[in-house]
Amino acid sequence: MDAANPLQQLLLRGLGTTTLVADHLRGVTQNWVNSGRLDPNEASALVDDVLKALRGETPELEQQMGRNLERNRDNLLQDFGVPSQKEVDELRGRIDRLEQQLRQMNRPE
Fold first, then answer.
1. Is 104 exposed, middle or buried (0-12, 13-18, 19+ CB in 10 A)?
2. Alpha helix positions (H), the chain
3. Greater pLDDT, 90 or 72
4. Are 47 and 19 within 8 A, CB to CB?
5. Which pLDDT score is estimated for 3?
6. Which residues have CB under 8 Å from 51's CB, separation 6+?
7. Integer Cα distance of 22 and 52 in angstroms
8. Which of 5, 29, 47, 93 lies at a CB distance of 3.0 to 4.6 Å from 43, suitable for a disulfide?
9. Residue 95: pLDDT band by 50, 70, 90 thresholds?
């Protein structure tokens, strides 16, 4: 390995880490299969899903995480008392209607 190429070193370390995680995950799932805690088909699917996630091949997982992040953000903002965009839009509509009513009341007849 070329010590002058940090990108190559990082890539190789990443591959090594991924391989290490995969091997450990296979061992753990095999232990679960042997103890009856996990079906062999489920173990294989679990390993495949985790490896896909490590390789970034799970767009549905990314979408789900995005939705969870948005929901958590919305809950946090609500806890802080920050109104949602819908609430702000509703208030703007009410203000517009009240201003229009006020102008009609103050209009000389």
1. exposed
2. 6-34, 40-55, 59-79, 85-106
3. 90
4. no
5. 58
6. 18, 22, 25
7. 11
8. 29
9. very high
Mean pLDDT of 10-29: 74
Per-residue pLDDT, 16: 66
Burial zone of 33 (CB within 10 Å; 0-12 exposed, 13-18 middle, 19+ buried): middle
Residue 83 neighbours by CB under 8 Å, 6+ apart:
91
In whole angstroms, give the CA distance from residue 86 to residue 90.
Answer: 6
Question: Exposed e or buried b for every residue in 79-97, given b needs 16+ CB within 10 A?
Answer: eeeeeeeeeeeeeeeeeee
Do residues 23 and 16 make contact, with C-beta atoms less than 8 angstroms apart? no
